[in-house]
Write a structure and sequence with these properties.
seven-stranded mixed β-sheet; 404 residues; four-stranded antiparallel β-sheet; binds pyridoxal-5'-phosphate; Aspartate Aminotransferase, domain 2; alpha/beta
Length: 404
């Protein structure tokens, strides 16, 4: 591992906050600003993406109390499994298409039955997932579709925001995921009756908890102060390198979540910070897209690398570039040089869901060979505005050397 640099690039491209965002200001609410930008029906603001999913699941379970299974991709954020558990439902992790993050159509149909409440296609890394197949499989058994767009705020398919093709969608406003209020989530539903149910469910479930809001407000101030190359070394890089030295990759990527998800309402100050920053979001997404396209073109010249890109008709977002290497040995060789190097190279999730020891009580054991293969061969490169052409060239050359 090369010596760490004074500057640290983030693993995902969050929209940097400005001091002016922090002044309390009256104005349209965060949910309204984002809904207007995306051209969606009204959005429902929650305290996290996970809380949004939990509320969506509880709402659907109220409609279909006899259905209690939730089908999710075998390679996704552990918080998804925790939300299903906290909703009192049963998780069914589904294997992936070989070499892809989408659920495998045949495996998905084996996972779905008349007990299935919802299927959760996931727009990973800002890429647009195959929601149509999830819809077809879900409709066959009478289940709902919840689009996990936690990593894809601003992504579109055929001009429409992701999250609108399924019954419900959600975005995350967590630190590093594009627009951030440190933690936050937005729920989306096309159908007015379902929107009303989601609002009613949240008003029953979600208390005001000023202690949590204080904590999140201080965390947001810390994020505003440290989310820049100098601060990230302290806030992200040094703890990352300590975890890597301990041989704890789950801690290194922050996959070690608590088993209980707090539910509370987001206060006015954090909303106004988000609303002001959101004004810069469309331009930020465009700039990230242009940068990512140049990086994708360069990576294509490295033989043996597969980079995930948009298909025709899709306009994803680019928090980071998601890559597959030919095998785990070469992926690990690349990570040995790049992970702790301060260049924003990382892994997405460490394991397929059934392989997290701490989720043993939540995720049933299952053979998911393609999800496991995806975990073993993938790596990510943060698409940060602070990454220079020189930084990116260093990454490409290192990958080339490991593959050659
Ligand atoms: C981060 C994430 C979530 C959870 O969102 P939070 O806002 O962090 O609670 C859900 N799904 C995926 C794919 C994620 O990356």
């Amino acid at each position: 591992m090369p010596p760490p640099r004074r500057q640290e690039l983030p693993p995902t491209a969050g929209l940097p906050l400005r001091p002016g965002d922090l002044w309390p200001a009256p104005g349209p609410s965060l949910a309204r600003v984002v809904a207007a930008q995306l051209g969606t029906p009204p959005l429902q603001l929650e305290c996290s993406g996970t809380a949004s999913l939990l509320i969506a699941l509880r709402a659907l379970h109220e409609l279909e109390p006899r259905r209690h299974r939730v089908v999710v991709p075998g390679f996704t954020c552990p918080l998804v499994a925790i939300a299903v558990h906290q909703a009192g439902l049963e998780l069914t992790p589904c294997d992936l298409r070989p070499g892809h993050f989408d659920m495998d159509p045949a495996a998905l149909r084996r996972c779905c039955d008349e007990q299935t409440l919802a299927v959760v296609p996931t727009h990973l890394a800002g890429r647009v997932a195959d929601v149509d197949d999830a819809l077809a499989a879900a409709r066959d058994v009478g289940a709902y579709v919840i689009e996990d767009a936690a990593q894809a705020l601003g992504a579109r398919r055929g001009g429409d925001s992701v999250g609108l093709a399924g019954d419900i969608g959600f975005f995350s406003l967590a630190a590093g995921k594009g627009l951030s209020t440190y933690e936050g989530g937005l729920l989306l539903a096309r159908d007015p009756a379902l929107r009303e149910l989601l609002a009613r469910t949240a008003s029953c479930m979600v208390p005001r908890r000023p202690g949590w809001e204080w904590r999140r407000s201080i965390e947001l101030l810390g994020y505003a102060a440290l989310y820049r190359p100098r601060g990230l070394r302290l806030a992200y890089g040094d703890p990352l390198r300590r975890s890597l030295r301990r041989g704890d990759p789950v801690a290194a990527v922050g996959d070690d979540f608590p088993m209980a998800i707090p539910l509370h309402r987001m206060g006015r100050w954090r909303q106004s910070v988000g609303a002001r920053a959101a004004a810069r979001l469309p331009a930020f997404i465009e700039q990230s897209r242009a940068h990512a396209q140049r990086c994708v073109a360069r990576l294509r010249r490295v033989a043996g690398i597969e980079v995930f890109d948009d298909s025709p008709g899709q306009q994803g977002t680019w928090p980071f570039l998601l890559l597959l290497l030919p095998d785990q040995a070469r992926r690990d060789a690349a990570l040995a040089q790049l992970w702790g190097a301060g260049l924003g190279v990382s892994r997405l999730f460490i394991h397929a869901l059934p392989d997290y020891a701490y989720l043993a009580g939540v995720v049933p054991p299952r053979e998911l060979p393609h999800a496991r293969d995806f975990a073993a061969r993938s790596l990510s490169i943060g698409n940060s505005p602070w990454m220079t052409d020189g930084d990116f060239e260093t990454i490409c050359r290192t990958l080339q050397a490991c593959l050659g």
